[in-house]
Amino acid sequence: MIKPPYLLFIGDATDKLSIKMAQGAVDWSPKQCIGELSVAGCTVTTSLPQTSIVQAAELGAKSFVLGFANSGGVLDTKWHGVIKQALAQGLDIVSGLHEKLTDIEEIAELADSLGRQLIDIRHPQQSFKTGTGEKRKGKRLLTVGTDCSVGKMYTSLALEKEMQAQQFDADFRATGQCGILIKGEGVAIDCVISDFISGATELLSPDNNTAHWDIIEGQGSLSHPAFSGVSLGLLHGSQPDAIVICHALNRSHMRGLPKSQLPSIADTISLNLQAAKLTNPNAYVAGIAVNTSSVTIEEGQKICLAIANEFDLACADPLRDGVSSIVKSLKAWSPKAATDNKNPVITDMEKSA
């Protein structure tokens, strides 16, 4: 159990995307966050007030959240002292890194002696079976991306909020460390053994009543050379009725891979539909969510309108414009409508053939 409120530690981060765990908590669970703590060299912020560990404890903080991520998910030894200070002030430690806090002897021993929790939310505690591909009751929406870190979690949470406001029976299903921190439960799919990814996703989104929608947070991208495996397992296990394509403007390459080429939205639609239909032949694309933060609001709206016209699909920036247009398309959902709507797309690959 992760106990709020949180003190969010962002260290000496210089990349806004690297603190998405902290930023996600601020954006979606603001009442659970007391402040942020950074050190010299940090050039980004969640916009929360700077708060020391002692101040946070006095204000009632219960958990010290490592709100940053890095390539490989390893905890730099320079942060061991800060974590010990938080433990000494009575705070539990929450980490979304691949390296387990419980595997660091000096930290584990101190936490045990003080009766504090070390919560490695990226590491599932339950066991999973392989996927079956068997049809489950209820409806499911999965967010997928042209790349990593394009807004799949934000889009999923925005869809849940809008759908609930419109009286849908809908729930967000977290599949990453940030989503788990916000939701309070879920499965970090990228830490599940590859044979069991589909099965873990089936367990995360089991049978439900026929009117219920599970909004399943996507991970990675089918086009990303490093992370396509987790994306495919999640796609097959989700059995999505509806897919929402997530895209970020003005990227020159796949995140973390300067020599890799970004796929087009058209190719992303084609690739994901083809794979999705293995476990749900009626899968269709319900809309496109675009992160337009690299341009002005006016430019972003013009781009979204152009994309909507090109693909004949709802398209919007979830943070700037909301997702009501995408939710509107879900209201008309039915197996027959999904079958009739084949989302025909001429891909870049087909154009060059």
From TrEMBL:
Official protein name in the record: EBNA-1 nuclear protein
Organism, scientific name: Shewanella psychrophila
InterPro entries: DgcN-like (IPR011669), DgcN-like_C (IPR035086), DgcN-like_N (IPR035402), P-loop_NTPase (IPR027417)
D-glutamate N-acetyltransferase-like C-terminal domain ranges (all copies): 130-327
Limits of the D-glutamate N-acetyltransferase-like N-terminal domain: 40-124
Position of the signal peptide: none
NCBIfam families, A to Z: DgcN
